[in-house]
């Protein structure tokens, strides 16, 4: 027990796992990949997997840490978000209560996973009686918006995301609605930096499928480019004002983009983190 257990959800964008698994591989005790046994998404759409992917996975897994967890994760009686919560809960239980349960999506790339693990280890006390003292550990997203000439557009303000918990009582996505402990860790999120076809596939099959107004979103996404991005605002796909502005960084790959990003301008301050954590501590003090 008290292991660093990392879980991934494998679906239509499984190829991105080739970029999201390597940054966490060395520090993880085990890596679980949840795959629907009928290869269905949360909306019931079937997806195909190139057998070469499993060949890559086997050759990459030199320490034999990776476990493919197959189960029925699609329930036609549930909406997409309910299916997402169901799968994440099943995966969390499979990884084992009593360990740090980290869930990372295929399009999420940790900048410094070793530091995140260090932060988790400083909080191992929460693994003693996890059901009675539930917490979530959050880092911060750098949301990548669109590949453009010689680089990428990204949201110019990082946003928090929950990545780990000591007890998998998920309510919405990875959110258990329990106390959050914020850490200074950044994750590149290749959320929308895809082709238009890939974005449509994502919007039709993920947990927010019933919430997104695709045509409204894709109209703005299609028009924005390296030369005019500063003339536009409000880019988020659910509540547009949550992503107010974009910025640009050069790079033709995730590794180049990561090297060229100015992380100091995107990392929340120590004071901000302290205020957030104090607020969470106080909010849950009497619960």
UniProtKB/TrEMBL annotation:
Domain of life: Bacteria
Official protein name in the record: Glycosyl transferase family 2
């Amino acid at each position: 027990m008290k292991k660093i257990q990392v879980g991934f959800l494998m679906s239509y964008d499984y190829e991105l796992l080739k970029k999201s698994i390597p940054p966490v591989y060395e520090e993880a005790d085990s890596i679980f990949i949840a795959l629907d046994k009928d290869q269905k998404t949360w909306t019931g759409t079937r997806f195909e997997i190139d057998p070469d992917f499993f060949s890559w996975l086997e050759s990459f897994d030199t320490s034999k840490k990776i476990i493919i967890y197959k189960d029925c994760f699609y329930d036609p009686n549930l909406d997409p978000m309910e299916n997402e919560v169901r799968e994440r809960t099943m995966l969390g239980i499979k990884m084992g209560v009593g360990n740090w349960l980290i869930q990372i999506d295929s399009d999420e790339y940790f900048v410094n996973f070793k530091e995140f693990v260090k932060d988790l280890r400083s909080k191992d006390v929460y693994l003693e009686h996890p059901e009675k003292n539930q917490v979530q550990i959050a880092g911060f997203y750098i949301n990548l918006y669109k590949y453009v000439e010689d680089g990428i557009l990204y949201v110019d303000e990082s946003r928090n995301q929950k990545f780990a918990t000591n007890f998998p009582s998920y309510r919405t996505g990875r959110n258990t609605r329990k106390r959050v402990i914020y850490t200074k860790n950044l994750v590149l999120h290749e959320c929308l930096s895809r082709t238009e076809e890939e974005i449509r596939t994502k919007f039709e099959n993920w947990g927010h499928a019933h919430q997104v107004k695709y045509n409204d979103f894709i109209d703005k996404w299609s028009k924005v480019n390296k030369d005019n991005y500063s003339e536009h605002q409000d880019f988020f796909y659910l509540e547009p004002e949550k992503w107010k502005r974009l910025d640009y960084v050069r790079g033709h790959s995730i590794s180049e983009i990561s090297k060229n990003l100015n992380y100091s301008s995107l990392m929340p301050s120590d004071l901000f983190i302290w205020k957030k954590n104090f607020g969470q501590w106080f909010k849950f003090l009497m619960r």
